[in-house]
Amino acid sequence: MTIEIRPRLIGLAVVIVCGIGLLPGSSWAQSATTTWPARAQANLFGPNPFGNVEVGVRSISGDTASSKFGEYRHIPKGLFLGRLAVLVENADKTAFLELRSREVRERDQNFFVAAGFARTLRVEVEWDQIPHTFSTTGRTILDTSVAGTHTVSPVLRAALAANPASAAALVPATATAQELEIRQDTGRAAVRLTPTESWDVRVQYANEKQAGTRPISTNFGFNSIEQAEPIDYRTHQFTSNVEYARGPSVLQVGYNLSLFRNQVSALSWDNPFILADRVGGPASGRLDLYPNNDAHNVSVTGATKLPWSGRVAATVNTGWMLQNDPFLPFTINAAVAPLAPALPARSLDGRIRTLLGNFAANVQPAKRVSLSARYRFYDLANHTPALIFPAYVSYDTSVGTVARRNVPYAYTRQNAGVDASFQLARGVSAKALFEREVWTREHREARHNADNTYGAAIDVAPNGWLMLHTSYRRSTRRAAEYDAEATAHFGFPFGEPGLGQLDALRKFDQADRNRDRLDGVIQIAPLESLSFDVAYGIANDDFVNSSYGLLFNNSNTASFNVTFAPVPQVALYAELGRELYSYAFQSRYRVPAGATPAVDFTRDDWRRSKRDRKVTRGGGFDAILAERVNLNVAYSRARATGLVNTVALDPAAIATVLAGAVRYPDTMNQLQALTSSVRYRLREDLAAKLEYLFEKYDETDFANDVMQPVMTAVDPSATQNLFLGARQPGYRAHIVVLALQYRFP
Amino acid sequence: MRTIAATRVLARTFTFGICLLTAGALARAAQDRAVAQPAAAPSGSQAAASGYVGEATCVGCHSLPAWQETTHARVFAHSRTAREERGCEACHGPGERHAADPSDPGGILRFGPKSRASTADQNTACLQCHEKGIRVTWQLGPHASRGVTCVNCHKVMETVSTKNLFAKATEMEVCFQCHQQRRGQIRRSSHMPFREQKMTCTSCHNPHGTANPKLLLTASVNEGCYSCHAEKRGPFLWEHAPVRENCLNCHDPHGSNHDKLLAAKRASLCQRCHVESRHPVTPHLATTRFVFNRSCQNCHSQIHGSNHPSGVRFQR
Fold first, then answer.
1. B253 domain residue, yes or no
2. Nearest-CA residue of chain A relative to B198?
3. Per the count of CB atoms within 10 A, which of A274, A346, B105, B211 is most buried?
4. Which A residues 272-291 touch B at CB under 8 Å?
5. Which domain range does residue B257 map to?
6. How many structural domains comprise chain B?
7. What confidence score (pLDDT) does residue B32 get?
8. What pLDDT is stored for residue B104 in this prediction?
């Protein structure tokens, strides 16, 4: 709803905006309470998004302690100011001011303001928050009050060092709760200037802050110390684009800048089990956190029309990724540091240059025929120096004897394709295509990959009641010059000790592969009030020449939806979806050739297969009763199960393989959501809403459910391993919302 | 070196191509301007001669209160081009025949599934004003070649979404009309904040066409991911090759039932590629620290890359 500037309305807007700062923690119920999919709900006020506000009160009960309940959202109890949207315009609608907000004074709030003059200038300012809660069950013995320097109390440390086995009793008794949540705050300002129809200038600056903690594992050899990684990132993004368009011809020039800054550059932590540094026994460890980096990007795009109703476009885009943070020393271990070699450089001077070239053209030589061709070139050139490290320090313990060299991976990807579309009849068209993709890599196993794709599509939409889109694609990828040890040849400048990769391994992203893709969607609406949607998809990857590594990776999906509106005031829907994903890979237990005895026999081959199944069900209805009451009910249940099974391929396999040839406990997660609401229109501009929501999430995951700060009860060998015990259990929430919705006149 | 040389050749070729294209575009623009000039005044006898009757004639029969609050109504109220001044006929074409005989569609262009016009003709009506900005390569994109019309996704005659004239209340509902598998994926336990309305499909894709595969906004998958995960951009001293090449080697951004949007459960995810020695090639039990919690990343935590001189195994 648009409104003209009038003192009363401006006063109301000011009061509402000022009130935002005074209200207690509150929330607009929509994101918290809307079940997915967010069905278009009948709105008693009509669809106009502007000029409305909602205030109310919310009650929550149940078990909502799990991080999954508030993973990316904040749903507090009590009074809330819901969505606010106001559009103010002058009398002739040549100037406007738009205000929008969501989740006011909550940790996922959003404010948006736009102002300008119609068609010539638009200025936007936005502030958005996104929380991300990883777990609410984390506990640690590390003092993390100083970001990046985590310590253990001397008393506890002395006790653990004297008797590591005492960790089972001491750690649970002394560990304190550890917050594991980050929040992303993004401020954005943008200006768009369109002085004429031909010119369009856009400039934007965004400043993103991420702060908080998240779980990270650190280690001393096989001894893990899981702790809270301090996150304090700033990312500055500047984007600009200038466009000149005249008729069908367009020229665009853009420049983007991104600067990432990490306020905590390293993480050091006490070894709870060792008090003083010695060779082979570090009293502390140090990890390098993500380094600062810069990125620049320049792009030019041009497009114009061709004869035969054709169009041609070309893009050149080049970018740089730069990183030159100072290196940390090899180790924090004072006893080992003097034994380490000198660093070959003070910093990396990492430089990656990307170059994209894209050319595409399309013509219609006949009324019912369309031909397209395209060529794309993307080159990632890694100009990072390759430094030789004569030795390095393994997990702050001791100086190794093997030299290593960093590997500046690089690649070039080229795509070319042609396709032809034919309109066979009104609303019926067919398409045939051929595409070829070629990868050229540096320092990877397959120096070249060529992938040829043939495809066809049929699209049928002859009238208003039938629509069919279906396509099939067959791809064959083949690798050339595959060398399983290609990376090692470069990364070990003076030779690789031990066995390295199995020669017969073919990594799935480069291996020979036959790929079949079939997908489609059919929409049938035999009546204005009744429609059916059926969608299906089959995706099979067969790694035809792989004996080891991924062997196949398949998926089958299908979904069915029906909507029915027996009368204009009532709409019902139901949905059912099924997905099945499966893969298998083969491996071999082996030990380095230098070991005695070396083990590298086909009898020790093993195979693991995985099957994930997902089933989604849902249904609901919208109804408008007596023109004043809107009733909405929606229910959905998404359930996923996973199965992992490992088999030894030879009964004579080594005991290590036979012992591990088991089926893991099945995994399961299920989200159920029920939304029901009644809205009653009190006046033309005022409605009351009563809403009840039920959410229930269940999860069973053998890898996560068992986690505790000390895990020796599960894995007796995990002595001197400490964890956060960060789990993501299920939750059950009942939410009741009572709200008033007001629409500005 | 061969790659670099090829790069240079291609860069020069494309730069030359862009220059040619720009010159051609400008020449064409000048030509279009010269040709378009006489038609820029569709009033009076010229308008009548071309079959245009003006918006006042249309609203004489067609009462459309919802239209008055739409974006296009506002634009036409402040028209800047001769085409916009035509009002209804800017999109629906000249209405003279239809006005003379209301029972005769008379060449009026209708939009939507019941239209007798081809998708190309329907879209051309929109593109005559909108073939620029993010839509500059629409005609070259996969949606155009699959018969998608603008009105499959957008609704012009009334407002049903808060922005972008979507045909549904939300952007994702628009995309899910055809991409129904994605609807199921974002419901998975591990997901980006789609359900929470903090991200949408166009956070990563431009459905109107781009120079990139999968209609991505950025030149590569990774560059798109770096726009939010800038910390993982590097370059790093020690890089993990599949990470540098493609985040999708390990992650499924549309949703997963595995932690961290992973494409497979750890340790299987890693063991598919690491057939080296000892612990990577052992089929560990679920009750070992090689499997529970973050599995391989219980030790190799810096798997996206490390800048530590001792981080060659992504442990520092």
1. yes
2. A130
3. B211
4. 285-288, 290-291
5. 232-298
6. 1
7. 41
8. 85
